[in-house]
Amino acid sequence: MFMTDHIGAHCLMRTWVALGLRHVVISPGSRNAPLVIAANQFPDLKLYTALDERAAAHMALGMALADGIPAAVISTSGTASLNHGPALAEAYYQGVPLMSVTADRPVHTRNQGLGQSVQQEGMFDAHVLWSGQIDEQSMSTEAMEKLATTAWTKALSGPVHMNMPFEEPLYGTTEAVADSAKPIVTPHQLEQDAMPDSLESLLSQHDVRIVVHIGALAIHSISESMVEQLIDRCAVIADVFGSNQQAAESSSMRLLCGWNEEVIASWRPHAIITVGLPPMDKKLRAVMTSWNAPHWHVGLEANAWDMFSSLQGNWRISPEMGLQELIDSLPGFNGFAQRWEVQRARSFQFQLEASNEDWVDFNVFQWLSTHLVDHCNRLHFANSTAARYAQWFHWEGMILHANRGVAGIDGCLSTAVGDALKNPEEEVVLISGDAAWLYDQNGFQVRPQPKNLKVIVINNGGGNIFRWLEGPEKSGLLERFFESGFGQSMRGSAEQLGMQYSICKDWISLESAFSLWSTEKGPSLLEIATPGPASASHLKSMLDRMEHLLNPS
Asked: How many other C-beta atoms can be found within 10 angstroms of the C-beta atom of residue 114?
């Protein structure tokens, strides 16, 4: 048996495999050959080849979602390495354990104008928890193993970057030697803090008014039973990507219907407690900011934003443990919480009364929320319109995910592909708009391809998110510059990628097309063509009707 003769690549892979690495996504190249040869030596590693480095990094991100175990992505040098940036930024803000490994030219050749050469060392420092470089020309084996161990330990909390300079020749091998003792590492335990004294003091007050916002959570999830206990004690808003259940309000659009300045002021809490990512909706964030209430963030992630300009502190504890302590600190009944639930129920009822059977995006998403239950275990939503429509409905029994850390359309398909590859026994579905699908279709250029992934593309001519805003339409430049309706049909892209394809354009054809799509044995794409302007108008008119019903004055 042979191993690479580049000891740095061997030390890195050997150490990470010993620590638990099992999934590596590799993009083709030459400078990364020592890493490829090194990874291929270990039978415990599952290797995947992805054409596009940006997609490859998002695939590794998707692989880390289910269990929080770091996944690695390997690139060659130069501009190829820079393409890991979007996924690292997403992982940074979500707290996902992603390890970027970038092959590089030798250190002594930097700034000589060689091809595929950029400043790679530390290039992602703003969006990783740790970065380092293993230079086998100047480091001992012990030092390289120590650095690899540090990288793994840091990666348990979020993304890291390891740069690897290699001298030519790159493809050399040597006879493998018996491994010495594998690295011994104490399992990494993040320190968890006690409840801040200031928060504990506030919770002890009589009939305290608390608003809890459960934002999107990539790794953790908040159970339905925990949310049910919370809503007896607090006003709760729960993003579907952090807690997919019906107990708490998930749609800020629905919740805020009828809220004038007087209503907003009447709901001012004594404190706001957040877990996960910030609110998706700008209007909700503005309302919560206007309260000027003391804010504590609960979580272990590196980023605890001052979401409402009133941050009192970051309570470093797992979301589940922190919310349980909150539940235990409050009485089982709270008048403010009960009034909040009455308001939530009214909003939900008025939404049902304001809806209709038009062939528009809102109603299609509602239909999918009830029909996907038997066809999917893990459900991904692309940014940004699809992720927003997801908030309105309950997706029974499914684990939901969207890349809401940065909320870009980069890598929405690729993340779902990585999730499907990591979990081949589970059915994975991506619901995407046409723009996000076209932007990331390289995400399916991977070997092996996942057999358990299906895609639904809502083709409304560009997403319509800009039709929800007043500015783009009033500018007169909406369709030319802001709304990216580049694809007339998704058939060509589906066939190019080897996916089975079906399409529907009305309620009658939806039933048969969905049945065909759902029973396909391999990857398939269902295109649902909806009228963009009518879909945007429907949402606006529904919200207007709800606004009038909930606040007639």
From this structure: 12
Q: How many domains does the chain have?
A: 3
Q: Is residue 170 part of a domain?
A: yes
In a domain, 263, yes or no: yes
* Residue at token pair 């009447």: 266
Q: 321 and 389 share a domain?
A: no
Tell me if 44 is assigned to some domain: yes
**Domain-embedded: residue 188:** no
User: What whole-number distance in Å separates Cα of residue 341 and Cα of residue 337?
Assistant: 6
Rounded CA separation 217/223 (Å): 12
CATH at residue 207:
3.40.50.1220
User: What is the span of the domain harbouring residue 415?
Assistant: 355-548
Query: Is the peptide bond between 541 and the residue preceding it cis, with omega within 30 degrees of 0?
Result: no
In a shared domain, residues 12 and 68: yes
Which residues contact residue 198 at a Cβ distance below 8 angstroms, ignoring those fewer than 6 apart?
Answer: 294, 312, 313
Query: Do 303 and 245 reside in the same domain of the chain?
Result: yes
Tokens of 35: 């890493």
Tokens of 139: 């480091």
Among 328, 353, 378, where does a domain finish? 353
Question: Which residues, at least 6 apart from 35, have a Cβ–Cβ distance to it below 8 Å?
Answer: 9, 12, 13, 26, 74, 101, 103, 164
Report helix, strand or coil for 209.
coil
The CATH number that applies at residue 360 is: 3.40.50.970
Say if residue 431 is in the same domain as residue 458.
Answer: yes
Write out the H or E segment, with its range, that includes residue 71: strand 71-75
List the pLDDT tens digit at each of the 553 positions of the chain: 789 999 999 999 999 999 999 999 999 999 999 999 999 999 999 999 999 999 999 999 999 998 899 999 999 999 999 999 999 999 999 999 999 999 999 988 777 767 677 889 999 999 999 999 999 999 999 999 999 999 999 999 999 999 999 999 999 999 887 665 455 555 455 678 999 999 999 999 999 999 999 999 988 779 889 999 999 999 999 999 988 777 898 999 889 988 999 999 999 999 999 999 999 999 999 999 999 999 999 998 877 789 999 999 999 999 999 999 999 999 999 999 999 999 888 888 877 776 778 999 999 999 999 999 989 999 999 998 999 999 999 998 899 999 999 999 999 999 999 999 999 999 999 999 999 999 999 999 999 999 999 999 999 986 665 545 565 555 555 554 455 666 689 999 999 999 999 999 999 999 999 999 999 999 999 999 999 889 988 998 888 888 877 776 6
Shared domain for 142 and 16, answered yes or no, is yes
In what helix (H) or strand (E) does residue 275 lie, and over which residues does it extend?
strand 271-275
For the question of whether the overall pTM of this predicted structure is more than 0.90, the answer is: yes
Ranges of H-type helices in 156-266: 197-203, 224-231, 252-255, 261-266
* Of the residues 335, 353, 371, the one at which a domain ends: 353
Beta-carbon contacts of 7 under 8 Å, excluding residues fewer than 6 positions away, are: 136, 141, 144
- What crossing angle do the helices spanning 7-19 and 141-155 adopt, rounded to 10°? 40
